[in-house]
Structure formats: C-alpha cells, structure tokens
Design a protein that fits this description.
By secondary structure, this protein is mainly beta. The protein is 0% helix and 49% strand. It has no helices and 11 strands. Strands 2, 4, 5, 6, 9, 10 and 11 form a 7-stranded mixed sheet that branches. Strands 1-3-8-7 form a 4-stranded antiparallel sheet, with no helix packed on it. The chain starts with a strand and ends with a strand.
Length: 124
Amino acid sequence: QEQLVESGGGSVQVGGSLKLSCVVSGTALNKVCLGWFDQAPGNEREGVASIGRYGDETYADSVNGRFTISKDNDKKILYLEMNKLIPEDTAIYYCAADPGFLCYDQNIPNLNYRGQGTQVTVSS
C-alpha cells in the first residue's frame, strides 16, 4: 500500500517561492498517477497538478506557468515547485497517488492514497 509524506510548506510573502516534496513508499513512481491538490479553509479540494507514469504533466489554470510538478523515480520523491506565489495560493497542499485513475489535475483529489498535508501561507 502506498504511503506518502509531504514536507516543504511554510510562510512566504507575495512573489516568493516554495518547493514541496512528497516521499512515496510502497510503489514505484512509474506505475502510478501522482499529483498535488489543495484545500483552503471553507473550500473544497482542488487539483493543482498531475504527473503521469511517463512524465506527462497537467496543471490547473490558476497555477499554470507558476508551478512545476516533477518526480525522481529513483529517489521516489514527488515535487511541486511553486513560484510567484499569491495570497490565493494559501492552503494545505496534499500529494496523492493511485495506479488506477485517469491522470489529470482535476482528478487528483479523487486518488485513493494521499499524505497528511503541508501548510502553505502567502502573505501580502
């Protein structure tokens, strides 16, 4: 069974950057769909980015051009590089994985395996 542990969240000012990491165990990264979703207080979960088995990436419109998803299959780590952060990016960010789902950003909240989340706070 897959287990995921996020790290790298924190507090930054507008325009700043953060890089989230997610250590994945229990599966090879080239056998699963991987991605990130977020949840802000009072809001529903929203897909942020996905990366498929062969490295194909998708992004939510709100982060396209600012965030980059990547993975290291050997180290079994998923990343989310977040640049040009804005207050609307403030949320808890979760990584997720699943071998059986259609892999695109808006589907990431539906994946069955997820981490405990890491808080990202952007202040103006």
